[in-house]
């Protein structure tokens, strides 16, 4: 039976949910507060890492499910969004070994490399102690991915409305008798179900709708882009702390049309997404410059540009993908959720249709900090 579904939030996760719901024949309307391609949230820019190498096998499984969906999206939308360049994980031998074991268990290829072998193949990179190369990785173009998802959803019949803010959602948590969404134009829209995917606005928006939310920190992160001519030839890479490098959370990087992007993971200041200062923190910029000088000889002598974006992070860095009554929640993607977008859209569609969710991502779960 086709359902009437409202999707609040037109960033990556909302757009992915709209695509997968409309592909199943549901009548979908996306309500997005800002204009197309806006830079206020977590989904904008030119680059995000795609990888299947995770120390937790369930995330590797999710990434492997996402990969063919990204390719299907490219076919439906006519837009290229995913480029596989391979990836290099290096640093802590224990972490690298764990990644190799998980990839082997999933039947995916990977090869251990010495620091010298990394430098020979990618002169711009300096590897720390031990490295693992795996080919099922690369980069997603973030802006193009969101626009492709919304385009594909529209081709399936979804209505996408930009510039529409949601001021309230009314429903019964117990009866499941549908939902009413009120917009900033005092328009009341009714539906069988609603998917709420509001990124950094989730901690302020969701507690009135569902119970059992884990605490979430919204931070402003600020990677740098180093403009080098061979940026698109770089693999994605993650430097895991614990060997010759001890930055909590590590450092990630990848090539993009804007240069080689390099960032610290989840260390930015806590912010209000409506009132944040987008001015980069000079101390954080200097930390990344110092890192590049030591570990990235390929960007030497270049003047980087900085940008800011939002992380919405749970204590365990696991996501929130669950349903209560007619409300499905997609939240807390903790700086590593982008690569999974289409499969999370499928999971949202399952929840809307009444299928059970995944315990790891449930509301009300125990969330010990990592």
From TrEMBL:
Residues 4-351 form the FAD dependent oxidoreductase domain. Its cofactor is FAD. The keyword Oxidoreductase applies. InterPro entries: FAD-dep_OxRdtase, FAD/NAD-bd_sf, MTOX. It holds the Pfam family DAO. SUPFAM superfamilies: FAD-linked reductases, C-terminal domain, FAD/NAD(P)-binding domain. This is FAD-dependent oxidoreductase. The keyword Oxidoreductase applies. Keywords: FAD, Flavoprotein, Oxidoreductase. The lineage of its organism: Bacteria, Bacillati, Actinomycetota, Actinomycetes, Kitasatosporales. It comes from Streptomyces atroolivaceus.
């Amino acid at each position: 039976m086709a359902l009437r579904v409202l999707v609040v939030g037109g960033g990556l996760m909302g757009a992915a949910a709209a695509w997968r719901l409309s592909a199943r024949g549901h009548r979908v309307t996306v309500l997005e507060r800002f204009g197309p391609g806006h830079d206020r949230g977590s989904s904008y820019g030119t680059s995000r890492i795609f990888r299947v190498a995770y120390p937790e096998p369930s995330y590797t499984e999710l990434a492997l499910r996402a990969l063919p969906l990204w390719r299907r999206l490219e076919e439906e939308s006519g837009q290229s969004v995913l480029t596989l360049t391979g990836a290099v994980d290096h640093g802590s031998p224990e972490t690298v070994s764990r990644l190799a074991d998980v990839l082997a268990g999933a039947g995916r290829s990977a090869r251990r490399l010495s620091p010298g072998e990394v430098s020979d193949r990618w002169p711009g990179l300096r590897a720390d102690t031990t490295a693992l190369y795996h080919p099922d990785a690369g980069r997603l173009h973030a802006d193009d991915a969101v626009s492709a998802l919304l385009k594909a959803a529209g081709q399936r019949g979804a209505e996408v409305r930009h510039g529409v803010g949601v001021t309230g959602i009314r429903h019964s948590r117990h009866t499941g008798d549908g939902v009413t969404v009120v917009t900033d134009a005092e328009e009341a829209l009714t539906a069988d179900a609603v998917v709420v995917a509001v990124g950094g606005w989730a901690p302020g928006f969701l507690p009135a709708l569902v119970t059992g939310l884990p605490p979430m920190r919204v931070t402003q992160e600020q990677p740098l882009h180093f403009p080098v001519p061979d940026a698109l030839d770089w693999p994605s890479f993650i430097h895991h702390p614990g060997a010759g490098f001890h930055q909590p959370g590590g450092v990630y990087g990848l090539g993009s049309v804007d240069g080689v992007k390099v960032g610290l993971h989840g260390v930015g200041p806590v912010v209000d997404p409506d009132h944040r200062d987008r001015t980069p923190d000079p101390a954080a910029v200097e930390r990344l410059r110092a890192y590049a000088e030591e570990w990235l000889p390929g960007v030497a002598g270049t003047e980087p540009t900085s940008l800011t974006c939002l992380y919405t992070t749970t204590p365990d860095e696991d996501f929130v993908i669950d349903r209560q009554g007619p409300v499905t929640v997609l939240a807390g993607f903790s700086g590593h959720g982008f690569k999974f977008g289409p499969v999370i859209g499928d999971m949202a569609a399952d929840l809307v249709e009444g299928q059970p969710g995944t315990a790891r991502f449930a509301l009300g779960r125990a969330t010990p900090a990592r």
